[in-house]
Structure formats: structure tokens, C-alpha cells
Amino acid sequence: MKNTEWNQIKVTVNLTQLDSLTAIMSMLDSNLMTEDFSDIDLKTCYGDLIDESILNADKTIAAVSLFVPEDKSVSDYLTYIKERTTEQGIDVKVEVIGVCEEDWANSWRKFFKPTRVGNKIVIVPMWEDYTPLDGDIIIKMDPGMAFGTGTHETTRLVIAMLERYVKRGDRVLDVGCGSGILSICASKLGASECRAYDIDPLAVSVARENVVKNKLRNVDCEVSDLLRQVVLSKGKYNIVCANIVADIIIKMAPDVADYMRNDGVLLASGIIVERADEVCKVLIANGFTIKEKCVDNGWCALAVTIS
User: Fold this and answer.
1) What would the mean pLDDT of 214-229 be, rounded to a whole number?
2) CA 144 and chain centroid, separation
3) Beta-carbon neighbour count of residue 261 at 10 Å?
4) CATH homologous superfamily for 112-306?
5) CB neighbours of residue 195 within 10 Å
6) 138 touches 122 (CB < 8 A)
7) Strands 237-243 and 171-175, how do they pair?
8) Beta 137-141 vs 33-35: how paired, if at all?
């Protein structure tokens, strides 16, 4: 079978403008690849596992890439990126690189190393060895082409919140599950049942594989368009995770309470800090109370309860 050909659109920017660029490109595709080496340091606990080329990379710039299949117009993507970056005064360098499916699926693996998130959780790639410390909760992951390695700020924020909010026996709903990482974390933190949904069948397939690799039997992954196809007859949830983007969280705001128990918590992430107040305002208008607001490197996550 012939491999699908893809065009990689790689946009390089000054590190100070990375968050703005990511927000623009996330409107085109949720499966972005970010190259930001500013936090890499030889003193980190995994420094000896990091490729030398990464350690020596220019820490003042960053790049965001998305991948366009051969049956879609690259020029449409480029036009959108050019228009939006010009509007916001972002100075960018744009490259279009041809890659095949096999190359794309495997080349990023050299960047994905064991990562500690929160206090107890360590995300470990399937192909890496890691000796756990006392109390570590190990999550084995192969995100494939789905979003969710645990290294992005939006995912880290939600995982840290899951450590604080998940109670043994909780039911957890993950909307826009990507690789399934949040549901897997919730299960290993003591949740009795986790349901993970994504609009992308590829993401759901990857999530199911990760659930099996972590030997979990209480995580169910299905294809769904946000909340509309999630069956309420399955019951309400103690925790709802939505690690998506601000616009989608706003769109979900009028309906998400229907899926939550009265004492439930919504963990909403993928929000750039510039839009956090807007999202909070919409959630409050729809009957929620902002319980906690956390920020990491320009990204915001909210813990929200029903008023």
C-alpha cells in the first residue's frame, strides 16, 4: 500500500511570540508539533537522555508545524497563516517540507523522553526505559499521530489538576481525548470509570492502544463530536476534562453541566492567557464558578464547578 504523502508547514518565530503563533495554527489543526528548546537544561533529571543537537539548539526561537495531507490545498493553509500573523504583527519564517506518512509517524520520537508531570505521574514512552522512584505512577505512552505526550503545557496543567481532584471511585469524562493520556492518568489515580471521546477516529484508535498498553479495563474510548453524541444515559460524571481550545470550550459551556454531577468539576485547558478572562466570563454566565486558575508559560487551565 502506498504511504500517504504529507506537506509539513513549519513556522519559525521568536520565542516571545510562540503562544500567539500556536493559537493561530491551532485554528487550522489540533495536531501540532512544537519545537521549543528553551526549557532544556543539562541539569534536568533526564538531561543524559536528551539528544545533543537539542541541547545545543537556539533557545531564542521556536517552531510550530502542522501536516497537510496531499489531497488538501497547502496554499489555503499558508494564506491563513500569513494573514493572521500579519494582523498580529508576528514575524515568521515559513517552510513547506514534503514528508511521507512513515517518516512523520516516527521522526518525532527522538524528542519524546520520560517526563515527570505533577507530583507523582511520570509519562514514559513505550520505547524508553525508566526506573521508577517510590510513589511514581507510570503512564506508558505512544501518542502516534494523536495529540498528547504529556509535555505540552496544556496537558501538564490538567494532569496536575487531576492529581488534586480525582477521588477513588470517580467517573471521568474526557472530551477531545487525543492520545487518551488524561483518562489513563485519571484511571491510575483511582477513578473507577473513564470515558474518552474524540472527533478524530485516528486519535480514538491511538487512545485505545494506549489503554491496552497500560493494562487498564475501565477506560472506554469512542468517536464523538464534542458533547452532542455522548449518551447521557451512561450517567453523569464527577470530573469532565476538556483540553481543547478556547473557542470550543466556549461552545461547550451551555451544555457541559448536563454531564456533570452537582458536585462535579470541569477541568478546561488549551486556553491562551489572553483569552482566559473571556472563557471565564462565558462559563460564569452559564452557571459555573471558577474554583482554580493555573497558568504555565502563557497557557491557562481552569477548574470549574457548578454554582
Assistant:
1) 86
2) 13
3) 16
4) Vaccinia Virus protein VP39 (3.40.50.150)
5) 24
6) yes
7) parallel
8) unpaired
